[in-house]
Amino acid sequence: MLLTCGALGTRTSGVVGDRVLDGLLPHRRPRVSTRKARSSVSRYAERQDDGRPDTSRLVTDLDVTFLEPDPEPPTVSHDDRHTPGADRRGQRVLDLLHADPDRP
Questions:
Q1: What's the whole-model pTM score?
Q2: Per-residue pLDDT of the chain (104 residues; tens, 9 = 90+)
């Protein structure tokens, strides 16, 4: 496809433009059914009584409660990355499960 500019006959697309225009995708197939727009009304048709307000509310005050922190974590963690595979806790659990699969 060669684009020309009116009576002058000058090219308006170069080599790259010609290749792009030659490689365009085919037209989409015609749509046979209408698109259905999503509607929040159909999704949330009935209001649930869950204690939340039905409409936006103006926040006029706020109560903040500070909770006590959790107790200190243990000083030594169990890092078994350097433990041989057979001695790791996960492997021992799997061995137990394979030995007795019906165990509660």
A1: 0.24
A2: 555 555 555 667 788 888 888 888 888 887 776 666 666 665 556 666 777 777 778 888 889 999 888 888 777 777 777 878 788 888 888 888 889 888 76
Which backbone phi and psi does 10 adopt, to 5 degrees? -85, 145
Single out the residue of 75, 78, 98 nearest to residue 88, CA to CA. Answer: 78
